Amino acid sequence: MTDYKINPAFTITDEQSLRSLFGATHDLAIQKFQDKLDKHAMAFISRAPFLCIGTQNTDGKADVSPRGDPVGFVQILDEHTLAIPDRPGNNRLDSLANIIANPNVGLLFIVPGFDDTLRVSGTACVTTDPDLLETMRVNDRLPKLAIVVKVTGVFMHCAKAFRRAHLWDSDYFQDRSQMPSLVKIILDQSTGAPEDPAEQRKLDDDLEDAYKTTLY
């Protein structure tokens, strides 16, 4: 595949040029921005079993990480503060290391069946406060730490993206088996996947077994 080259003649490099392509921002789009969690934002967060957290390091390298747990897993400590448990993962620690380097974060809360989403921005820190972690116990296991977010911006995001994607419409669900398994993809990208299908199936089965015992 030939590398794509951006034509600099069509590159937008300043905000004025960007905004000239669009109409004026609707008053409600401006007014909906809040600096704290109101009752509607709290209700949305309390229903969300899933969010994405965007972080950056000091060099501006960005990362987005999914976080999921039972409904209500993100704790609302007050109208300006959220706490997110950190569950076992791959130990890359990209988001956590970024937060330590640069505390600015963006959160996108998603509720299954809802086409609208909730966007939250703020500053985060990583804590091992035992009293807080105790409230996040699941299956008698505590998280090693939690992400605490001081909220500076909150607003509801409209449904257009999810409607265009037909995200919750089962008629548009795709067959996962049409792509290789996660294990095979990672092995193809790294050390190489086994040629023996039986060996590959065992690796896939081992991952499924690990899911059952390492979620918490």
Global shape: globular
* CATH third-level topology of the largest domain: Pnp Oxidase, Chain A
How many independent structural domains? 2
Quaternary structure: single chain
The fraction of residues assigned to DSSP E strands is 25-35%
Straight-line N-to-C gap: 41 Å
Order of helices and strands: HHHEEEEHEEHEHHH
Category by helix and strand content:
alpha+beta
Helix content: 25-40%
User: CATH H level of the largest domain: which superfamily?
Assistant: Electron Transport, Fmn-binding Protein, Chain A
Low-confidence stretches: none
Task: Characterize the biggest β-sheet.
Answer: 7 strands, antiparallel
> Got a strand count?
7
Spatial strand order of the main sheet: 2-1-5-6-7-4-3
The assigned CATH architecture of the largest domain is: Roll
Number of helices: 8
Residue-averaged pLDDT: 96
**Rg, Cα atoms, Å:** 21 Å
CATH class of the largest domain: Mainly Beta
Give an overview in words:
The chain has a seven-stranded antiparallel β-sheet, with helices on one face. Helix content is 30%, strand content 25%. It has helices at residues 15-19, 27-31, 39-47, 94-101, 130-134, 160-165, 182-189, 197-214, and strands spanning 50-56, 62-68, 75-78, 81-86, 104-110, 117-127, 145-157. The chain has two domains: 27-165, Electron Transport, Fmn-binding Protein, Chain A (Pnp Oxidase, Chain A); 174-214, no CATH class. The chain is of the alpha+beta class and 216 residues long. The model has no long low-confidence stretch (mean pLDDT 96). It has eight helices and seven strands, in the order H-H-H-E-E-E-E-H-E-E-H-E-H-H-H.
